[in-house]
Amino acid sequence: KENQPFYGEHQAGIITPQPAAALVVVFDVLAKDKHELTRLFKLLTTRISFLTKGGKVPDVDPKLPPLDSGVLGPEVFPDNLTVTISVGASLFDQRFGLADKKPAHLIEMVRFPNDQLNLDECHGDLSIQICSNTAETNIHALRDIIKHTPDLLAVKWKIDGFLPPHTLAKMGEESVINLLGFKDGTANPNAQDNKLMDELVWVGTQSGEPAWTVGGSYQVVRIIRNLVEQWDRTPLQEQEKIFGRHKHSGAPLGKKNEHDDPDYASDSDGSRIDFKSHIRLANPRTAETRKNLILRRGFNYSRGISKSGQLDMGLLFVCYQANLTNGFLTVQARLNGEPLEEYIRPVGGGYFFSLPGVKDEKEFLGQALL
Ligand code: HEM
């Protein structure tokens, strides 16, 4: 029940509908050479194929540590779990002899003007996105992976995310709400449309990329703090102008329903939807900007308070695209200087390449790369 298949052309967790809980964890790879890196990818394949399917964990001699943390009880159950493995630009340095296999657009995350990056939460060799119905299932999977890879991986940074379950239940009809109180995901490309995903999300054979990348995707992770105290004291009218949408319905300004077209053609002077609004900058909806469409798959986060006593919460922004330059990098460049910047602060993240899927039991993650 609630099992997201592990085997397939693509990894799960990219076009898979979003469940309520997520976790992104980024590691330094400790493997010393290609041989050890291969051992790591084989191990990850074995663990993920088990965790996403579930099953009984055998008992061992009580003088030994149990095989499983026990967080999910004696029998591991899938709970909609997906575990998505992606690699950072640093994996292609001299350590593993993979320099000539680096995806063409993969770079270390760059700093944009509004960023206030904390280097302890940036970049890394390997990212694992874990999503499922509950935080416990994600933690169980993470602890299982860490337990099996002590000599191969060291945790660098981690962040947990969540989505409101009451809107998730109606996914497809209703969008989830972010912590600024706006519906999020409304204009996302339809992830069930395979042809569209082949165009926008998956690296294809005609991409000019190294052959091993076909079926993979560029992953962008950004930890974007929301300055909610300030936002909650901002007039509704101003909030709506900043996004270009009505707060409660999610409709483009001047329209009635969430999925109505913003109809920029009828608003050539930007008097209805400001030229500097988030949605108009992010997607001007012209023929030339179609290639910049991205698949957003973000989660809310909340984690204590800042040193000055403000709530530390915001958006764990995650997006996927077939081409990092045409996708996130171009969209973020258009958003630079947007009025929303007064209320948000990107503090961490990284760019990664999500490996192609594992087709069957005979294959392992990253096999074509190695
Ligand atoms: C749309 C919120 C950051 C790209 C939206 C919408 C909201 C929103 C409320 C309108 C509903 C929707 O279509 O989903 C936020 C917040 C952010 C943030 C609160 C930061 C905390 C970003 C970033 C990017 C981005 C970093 C990419 C660089 C987009 C795109 C759209 C969108 C492409 C769809 C526009 C359209 O097609 O009409 N965002 N966003 N957003 N956002 Fe963001």
Describe the structure.
The chain is an alpha+beta fold and 370 residues long. 20% of the residues lie in helices and 22% in strands. The chain is built from eight helices and 13 strands. The strands form three sheets. Strands 1, 4, 5, 6, 9, 10, 11, 12 and 13 form a nine-stranded antiparallel β-sheet that branches. The chain has a two-stranded antiparallel sheet with strand order 2-3. A hairpin with a 5-residue loop joins strand 7 and strand 8. Helix 1 (34-53) packs antiparallel against helix 2 (135-148). The chain is globular, with a radius of gyration of 21 Å. The mean pLDDT is 96. The structure holds protoporphyrin IX containing FE (HEM). The site of protoporphyrin IX containing FE has 26 residues, from strand 8, strand 9, helix 7, strand 12 and helix 8. Involved in the recovery of exogenous heme iron. Extracts iron from heme while preserving the protoporphyrin ring intact. Residues 11-162 form the Dyp-type peroxidase N-terminal domain. Keywords: Heme, Iron, Lyase, Metal-binding, Oxidoreductase, Peroxidase, Signal.
